[in-house]
Amino acid sequence: MDQKNKNSNKPIYSRFSQQELHAWKPILTPGWVIASYIAIGALFIPIGFLAWSASDRVVEIVDRYDEHCVPEDFSSNPQSFIQNPGIKKTCTRTIIVPKKLVAPIFVYYQLENFYQNHRRFVKSRSDKQLRDPKAENDTKHCLPEAYTADNKPIVPCGLIAWSLFNDTYKLSTRGKEISIERKGIAWKSDAKAKFGSNVYPKNFQKGGLVGGATLDETIPLSKQEDLMVWMRTAALPTFRKLYGKINTDIEAHDTIKVEIENNYNTYKFGGRKKLVLSTTTWIGGKNDFVGVAYISVGGICLFMAINFILLYVFRPRRLGDPSYLSWNRHPITLNPSSL
Amino acid sequence: MGTGRKRRLHLSNIYSFKCGRNRFDDDHSQIGGPGFSRVVYCNESGVSEAGSHSYSDNYVRSTKYTPMTFLPKSLFEQFRRVANFYFLVTGILSFTELAPYSAVSAILPLIVVIGATMVKEGIEDWQRQKQDHEVNNRKVKVHRGGGVFESREWKNLRVGDVVKVEKDEFFPADLLLLSSSYEDAVCYVETMNLDGETNLKLKQSLDATSTIHNDSDFNNFRATVKCEDPNASLYTFVGTMEYQDQQYALSPQQLLLRDSKLRNTDYIYGAVIFTGHDTKVIQNSTEAPSKRSGIERRMDTIIYFLFFILFLMAFLGSVYFGVVTKRDLDGDRQKRWYLGPDRAKIFFDPNRAPAAAIYHFLTALLLYSYLIPISLYVSIEIVKVLQTIFINNDIHMYYEEADKPAHARTSNLTEELGQVDTILSDKTGTLTCNSMEFIKCSVAGTAYGRGVTEVERAMAKRTGSPLIVNGRDQLLDEPNDDDSTLSVKGYNFEDERITNGYWIHEPHSDVIQKFFRLLAICHTAIPDVDEETGKVTYEAESPDEAAFVIAARELGFEFYKRTQTTVSFMELNPVTKQRVERTYELLNVLEFNSARKRMSVIVRDDAGKLLLLCKGADSVMFDRLAKNGREFEENTKEHVNEYADAGLRTLILAYRELTEEEYKEFNEKFTEAKNSVSADRDELIDEATEEVEKDLILLGATAVEDKLQKGVPECIDKLAQAGIKIWVLTGDKMETAINIGFACSLLRQGMKQIIITLESPEIIAAEKGGDKAVISKVSKESVKTQILAGKAQLSASTTDPLALIIDGKSLAYALHDDIKGTFLELAVGCASVICCRSSPKQKALVTRLVKEGTGKTTLAIGDGANDVGMLQEADIGIGISGVEGMQAVMSSDIAIAQFRYLERLLLVHGHWCYRRISSMICYFFYKNIVFGTTVFLYEAYASFSGQPAYNDWYLSLYNVFFTSLPAIALGVFDQDVSARFCLKFPLLYQEGVQNTLFRWRRIFGWMLNAYGAMPTSISTDAYKVFVETLVPAPSYWVVTLYVVIAALVPYFCYKAVQMRFFPAYHGMIQWIRYEGNTDDPEYVNMVRQRSIRTTTVGFTARKRDNLWLIS
């Protein structure tokens, strides 16, 4: 009854199944440790300097204007200034260019203490509605900016669109206006896929309260690049958004006259507004952090390498000396014959 | 098959049955009362009255779930895990507006995780179900009515059925023996599966039913049995049988237990008394507990800790959020107007900021859930399954002869294998092969036998010196001469001076002749002659005895016939070289028992001389020698000590000639004693035998090897070197257990033995008194004092290793609540512990005591059904898939074919698995803390509004897929040291026992490392701003490189420093390998010597003792 099983149960031999594959098990010998520290140091410090010098070559002009663009009389109560539609908001700033700005020059506006990353804010949009003209009633996430008082759906709905930034800048130097290219500032994928070319703004800013900018109802959303830029919500409360590009060089020591329409209300929440002009290099905009970080890590590695070399010279230790074993450092009485 | 057989003997004529006649005693008066309510109507299956007692059927289930209960029960099991329950709650909450991410992305990972675990559970249970099915569908012959028996499945057996069980079949339920193929209705039962004892037990039915011998007789058979309710006690049974209007008392003598086996008996008839889960075996087995490993338990603590952090983070966030939200609206004046605070719902309403904060708290709990590694459990399970596949496929744990690879039955304990502190081992079938071999003897002061025992072989291997046996060099170049090459089972004697009749040329050939005649006569074995080949086989009560008779046969003294009064054997005549038949008249058999430690027969030889032939333990035999019988005493004693040290069981053989008067006097006394019915009957018998078994003449000594399994001493030695304690729990008697202790180097000469036993005179006196309360009180006191005395010895001697040997009776008292603490302290202090005569339940209790008392990981290993309790109680149960029974294997966690594979299983796989799992868990916590903390810190930049830093799917897949695969790879493939080195340096195992790789320090180290890496990670978030404007910018790659390297540098530093100044043991071994010193034996030895701590057991210790003696 106990039929012998012809198929043997013997496991199949293979290096894999027997866990005998060759393995690389690097051991941190002093040579190895020192070599790798030096290697990291040697790699990082040059990269750091490269990044740092690239960042150094970037010319960046930052001009905070929110305070200065409030007339003296309103300085104690900027709210009443900014909320009063009757007062002209134009203000003029002059900037002296420290170094030659080589095209393309990027024009950003920078907002501070503006929580575009607030969950309520981020969620208050309807991607469907932005994409599809038939989905204009898909506004359930857009509250409180979903419908106008007479129950018409707002396109684009939600707090993000509603709070669209509406300051404008005009730059001129030597009495000549510098043209700012306002096209091509949004992500291409946004224009293509996220914002419909046949979706037009409707009932926008027609609710009880006006938040920010208004939109031209004849231009489809996929061409409203300011909106697209604005609706890519920033991750941090201090952020820059692209306003436009300047395709001409600006010489050093030139004076730039900036005419600002100071419409956007940051005074309520104590936010700051800045205008930023910046050139780029391979590393992007001005960013000293990368270079400094690289250099410091490289430096630490070199420092460690030196330490290990010194240790190796002054306190060499037998490899694999068992007296360092954790249980040998608090030894139990060893048998004399095994010593 | 019974046709060719000679008529069976009435064995009761030879043996003086201890049981005698059943008397009605106190216990029987309880029948019908509480606890004794069972009524069985035998052979009345058709009668409705029998059906009115709805006793359970004979179906036995060992599965955890049924198809009906699987879903709810396994789901419940799953959600008992805190983490899983938490994720269930978050999953439900994620459907509300509170959720910071989409519901599907939250619930999907949970479904994947739970689903995977449930599938695994289901498969495991299905396999168990298959095994159950096999057992439940075994066939047995059942009386159908009208005297006809039919084959029926076990599961369809009902209480009261009459069954016929044939030779070598298992009993399907607890049966009441009615009659057997023997006339006096005895039968032999092998209870290996119950208590691990290999000798056959004799059972006898009531005289009243013993006459039923034909199937047809059962047509009119009616009986009513009233007995105790189902209980777990294997050795008691109280009941009465009403048969033919008469009441008979029933005792355990009539009860045949399920899972024991009918031997040497052609068939028996029995009535089913207990079925299925009511049977004593199953009552004895405890519910299969779901085992959890220690690391898993610690993991839970870490998860609680993470929960604490999670709640703390959520709380801080909510408070901040509440404050900020409150400030958004100051009367009518809005602050962050772009958030529309004046028109907000409850979640963000500044007017109801506290409520908003509370809601936010829930949101935050959802958001920071990434701190809890959801896929940790499932990843660990995947890893463990893969690890078990590796274990199952290990070619070094495959047993060629039985065609059995290792088989891990449950996968959740792999890393426990790396942390075993104490091994509790069964003896029979686990350490030994359960076969005895006649290997050496000392006759007339000369040692014969060139066989090499396992222990000698193991020692010789260690010393590397050629083995010197009997003054002859024997090189150990054939290490593989094991059972397979053995021609005769039970016989491994080789010595050209004796074999093939050469013994006649030896100086004391007359003594040799007497010696082997004694072996051929003095026993209780029954010969079985194959009529075709003329070959004789023997059926003996114990394998020892069989070994003696076989040895005698092989050396030319072939015992071939036993009648009621004679013993016949063939003998080679030394002069004529002819085979001569000799028949001795068998007058008396003076049985073996543990008090007498000897057995004798009195025979009249063919010349009419009266002889008393005696064999017994050296402790009793040397005292009984006559003055003129001590000629060889010195030499024999020396040999016996040598044998004992080589792990052999020894017996002293001696004889005496009796005069007719002496015999007559003895026989009268003996017969009188035998026939007495008084309570001191045994004593009278002992007294009678005492007087005749004296003035013996020494012939020599035998040495039988209780054949250890191959490689057991080496394995035990390695395990001892690895710092693992080994306890032996056996059902065998003390002498046997001690012998095996010597054989496998757990005991050795020079070790102080603390023996706790209740065989002392006072106790025996108390037992005579019969008052149970007094007995238990006296016994307990005695055990207590013995334990305390042992402890005193323990504290007194710091140098000498101690061995504790305790028998089952004493153990019962030692396990009482008030003493067990002291007992454990004593046991832990001893180098070896041997518990003999222990019942299955005691084995389990001892295991529990060790497990709970020391808090360390215990491993139990056994092969029989009597080990089941122990296997289930221990942290890890290992079953030996040996010859007999599958019970142990079925309730074990891992099954291996041979004890020696334990070495590889623990030292290699255990170590690896432990290392892999602990690294993997650390890795998991590391990555989750990195992730969870970045999410939290990002919140600081988003005014704790609950906006996740990452995309929904990235969030949920981070845990389940992105990061778990590398962790799993680490968990499956990481190897610190190759298998060869694991075995070479057993102390490496201590890393697991001391739990060095999963200490809190290490866990927090990893966690801190996570925080260390975090500030750089956060810069990647800030980087999103960058990415928005300059997607393909090189700076992205620059920063990525930076993040990777900078995050690794701290760990690299730590590692380098650790390797240099605080190396772990595996690190050192890596050093050795790296340096290429592995082939330099001296160097390796140096490191190994350093690593080997003073082991007190194993032959390494023995060798060292010898060295000391030399130096």
UniProtKB/TrEMBL annotation, chain A:
Q: Which InterPro entries does this UniProt record tie to the protein? A: CDC50/LEM3_fam
Keyword Membrane included in the entry's annotation: yes
Q: Which UniProt keywords apply?
A: Membrane, Transmembrane, Transmembrane helix
Q: Specify the superkingdom.
A: Eukaryota
GO CC terms of this entry: endoplasmic reticulum; Golgi apparatus; plasma membrane
As for subcellular location, the record says: Membrane
One Pfam family it belongs to: CDC50
Q: TM spans, by residue?
A: 32-52, 292-314
Q: What is its main location?
A: membrane
What protein family does this chain belong to? Belongs to the CDC50/LEM3 family.
How is this protein named in the record? ALA-interacting subunit
What organism does the record attribute this protein to? Ambrosia artemisiifolia
UniProtKB/TrEMBL annotation, chain B:
Q: Provide the active-site residues from the annotation.
A: 426 (4-aspartylphosphate intermediate)
How does the protein's chain sit in the membrane according to the entry? Multi-pass membrane protein
Q: Which locations, inside or outside the cell, does it occupy?
A: Membrane
Note the PROSITE patterns from the entry. ATPASE_E1_E2 (PS00154)
| Reaction(s) the record says it catalyses | ATP + H2O + phospholipidSide 1 = ADP + phosphate + phospholipidSide 2
Record InterPro entries: ATPase_P-typ_cyto_dom_N (IPR023299), ATPase_P-typ_P_site (IPR018303), ATPase_P-typ_TM_dom_sf (IPR023298), ATPase_P-typ_transduc_dom_A_sf (IPR008250), HAD-like_sf (IPR036412), HAD_sf (IPR023214), P-type_ATPase_IV (IPR006539), P-type_ATPase_N (IPR032631)
Q: Which family does it belong to?
A: Belongs to the cation transport ATPase (P-type) (TC 3.A.3) family. Type IV subfamily.
Know the name of this protein?
A: Phospholipid-transporting ATPase
